[in-house]
């Protein structure tokens, strides 16, 4: 780290060996830190730790904490508070240790019991989705990381750690963490839901047809439906990020109420819940596009004249 804020190498402990924790462990080892211990309870976590961090000891939580100069708490949001309270109650964390959690919604307030014992609190959240695949590790070098710290020294440490693994650090205020995390969940999770819904609807539209005299197989993962949707979805995302509001196309942006009504009717016959999701997204799109009144009328009546 710059300015002598820490030694060239840190001993790192990771709680626990999940998708995020092990990916960060590999990234930290690549910049010459040493992951000396991690915790892993489930068989899946133990296998992941053995594969990604083969030289790292798998130990109980308190022993991991006691060995670490940099302690990474990579547990689900709902478990973080109890973990911190337990570590504080046992006095397992070294005074002066850097304690980092990876929760998006929490700032450093959740670390107060350890801060009171002389630890340096940091919230460092990778703005990235993690599936457990090896690509997770490579994606860290292209990711942005939301950093919340108690003071400028804390921010310098957090930003330096992120820069070391190739990421881009940015500051998030303590009181803005929930809004920050909601925005990322909306972008990451809901985009996935919309794309998968679209794939299912397209499969239904293509099912039962023939190709070269044989029935077209559309239900296999990575099949025709995905190949159709992929370039469209990628272009839409790139256009949205590069052109903003001007990226909106389709029947809502054109004010084509008739097409929207037909869409809703077809979707309702296939999957009523999907039709409701389409209607909700279309209403939000109509608001963004300042669509004409007839578009809102169709969307508010399900396209069938019924509310």
From TrEMBL:
Residues 144-284 form the DUF2520 domain. Residues 4-126 form the Putative oxidoreductase/dehydrogenase Rossmann-like domain. It comes from the Bacteria. SUPFAM superfamilies: 6-phosphogluconate dehydrogenase C-terminal domain-like (SSF48179), NAD(P)-binding Rossmann-fold domains (SSF51735). Pfam families: DUF2520 (PF10728), Rossmann-like (PF10727). InterPro entries: 6-PGluconate_DH-like_C_sf (IPR008927), DUF2520 (IPR018931), NAD(P)-bd_dom_sf (IPR036291), OxRdtase/DH_put_Rossmann_dom (IPR019665), TM1727-like_C_sf (IPR037108). This is DUF2520 domain-containing protein. It comes from Mycolicibacterium diernhoferi.
